[in-house]
Amino acid sequence: MTRSRINNYLAKIPLFFNLHNLVYKPLDLIYKPADLNWNYYHKIKEVEVELEHQIGRLTNFKEIIESIDRDKLPGDVVEFGCWKGFSVLWLAYLLERTGIFDKNIIGLDSFAGLPEADGVFKKVQFSDASLKDCRRSIYYSRDLYSPTKKKVVFYKNNFSETKDIVTKLKSRKFCLVHIDCDIASSAQEIFKILLEGDLMAERCYVVFDDYGCQSGLKEAVDNIISGLSDRWEITPAVKTKLTKNYFFNRKR
Q1: pTM of the predicted protein model
Q2: Measuring CA to CA, how many Å separate 216 from each of 52, 95, 116, 227?
Q3: Per-residue pLDDT reduced to its tens digit, 38-50
Q4: C-alpha angle with apex 140: 29 to 132, nearest 5 degrees?
Q5: For residue range 232-245, what is the model confidence (pLDDT) as tens digits?
Q6: For the chain, first and last CA: distance in Å?
Q7: What is the sign, positive or negative, of the torsion defined by CA atoms of 218, 177, 47, 27?
Q8: How many whole angstroms separate alpha carbon 83 and alpha carbon 174?
Q9: Radius of gyration of the chain (CA)
Q10: Bridge pairing between strands 174-179 and 232-239
Q11: For a FRET experiment, which of 25, 55, 115, 243 has its CA 20 to 30 Å from that of 191?
């Protein structure tokens, strides 16, 4: 019997389940999937900053994944800056709910916190997580099927090692890139890696989290986008207060 089956069996035993949750509290989705729509977003966007941020971001994820499914876009999914694994959990969940089980979902983070300060973000902020935390957030999730969990991988690395990881995993190019690195210098580094490594699919979505925060990220992203117009047809997608998305279509 595999470890996964043993855990699933033991989890059905009330005493073990309670002890299990005390030791490994599963990461919860927190937000209701039924609330991920623009009608609800516009009703709540002034209620609370974090509620607006998450409902807006997750609704974007949902729409993008539905578009990927509808247009049959090939490629895998990557997140730069996964902290404790919350948004990777949601990406995996939404892919699963859409019936997509053939895409790798790769989470990359140094787990050392931010390398430098930028606006409202402080140096070493978000260092209170680990590779083990992220792996457990998926492994013990009660919201994902086993086949989905097997498609999720996390790596502790510097972003510069991304190409080597993609090669090791035999991953395809990325049809969805979530950049949650918070600061300008990291966004610039990530895009340099994506372009030099030719890691973006011919058609792909890029989601920038924290675009609307008080930092240098917005200016950096705007400069990145304007500098790629000769190689890519780039269409802005829905923007929320703190996130901005683009659809990239490589020019022939």
Answers
A1: 0.86
A2: 21, 31, 12, 17
A3: 999 999 999 999 9
A4: 100
A5: 999 998 779 989 99
A6: 51
A7: negative
A8: 20
A9: 18
A10: unpaired
A11: 55
